[in-house]
Amino acid sequence: MVDEKNNQNQRQNQRKADDDMINLVDNLNRSEDLRFNRRAFLKSAVGASLTLGIATLPFSIKAMMDDREEDSEKVEIGKLSELPKGESLEFHYPTDSEPALLVHTKNGELKAYNNKCTHLQCPVFYEKKEEVLLCPCHRGFFNVDSGQPMAGPPQRELPKILLEVKGDVVYAVGREVRHG
């Protein structure tokens, strides 16, 4: 009688265990399991990386070609004989939307900077009397020899424009942004 009771309990337990196993595997779908496995993920990641790399290739080539063009960019500013010592001349460099200022100092040196104040982009003017570059918006002063801020709110120096003089003509040949 005890053996028969034990056998009956074992059969019930086995049936429950089989039912539980069926419940555990009911949520598995073979097609979804194959679609979302690690290998499929890696294939997708490699494919996306290759697609992005190929898609950005034309932009990379253009960027490399633009660097070469920038090196050869040379813009005529004006004639040195028409700019007396202690005077300044406004021009645009490297594009028409970038105002710049050429200063012929009292010592006879030529200095050029972008003339947007590094504080709030107000125009900067040459003060002949004091030999400084002045931003009138917030009374910022820059050293005309270095473009470094001397007083006022500006904390960074003005971008310097590299010059070349051939004969009587002054050219802008490059720009040096020193504060990064």
Automatic annotation (TrEMBL):
Residues 1-22 are annotated as: Disordered. SUPFAM superfamilies: ISP domain. The chain crosses the membrane at residues 40-61. InterPro entries: Rieske_2Fe-2S (IPR017941), Rieske_2Fe-2S_sf (IPR036922), Rieske_Fe-S_prot (IPR014349), TAT_signal (IPR006311). Keywords: 2Fe-2S, Disulfide bond, Iron, Iron-sulfur, Membrane, Metal-binding, Transmembrane, Transmembrane helix. Residues 75-172 form the Rieske domain. Gene3D superfamilies: Rieske [2Fe-2S] iron-sulphur domain. The keyword Cell inner membrane does not apply. Pfam families: Rieske. GO terms for molecular function: 2 iron, 2 sulfur cluster binding; metal ion binding; monooxygenase activity; oxidoreductase activity, acting on paired donors, with incorporation or reduction of molecular oxygen. PANTHER family: CYTOCHROME B-C1 COMPLEX SUBUNIT RIESKE, MITOCHONDRIAL. This is Rieske 2Fe-2S domain-containing protein.
